[in-house]
Amino acid sequence: MEARRDVFQAIADPTRREILDLLSGQPLNVNTVAERFDMTRQAVSLHVKILSECGLIVLRQQGRERICEAQLDKLREVAQWVERYRQFWEQHLDSLEQYLDHLQKQKKHGRKK
Asked: 2 in a domain, yes or no?
């Protein structure tokens, strides 16, 4: 049984992130996407398949071509996850800054604890 892919797995690979960047500007056919990379068309097709399984791109048949179109709404899940940790680190860094300010003021006033 194949493990279910998720958006985090999809964006973990730099090639897939680059494909998303490429498609964020406009839909492209698979061959045009493959031409932009120094790898086989089959390797690019596998990346496209993973992005499609994760819902980050939609493939549609247009005549003889398969068109890839970015569906970047799924990245909202990543943004929300990152935001939680950004807030966590900002709070901790604010606390550290306050502590360092406190130490600096103590040092200026010649008091030591």
From this structure: no
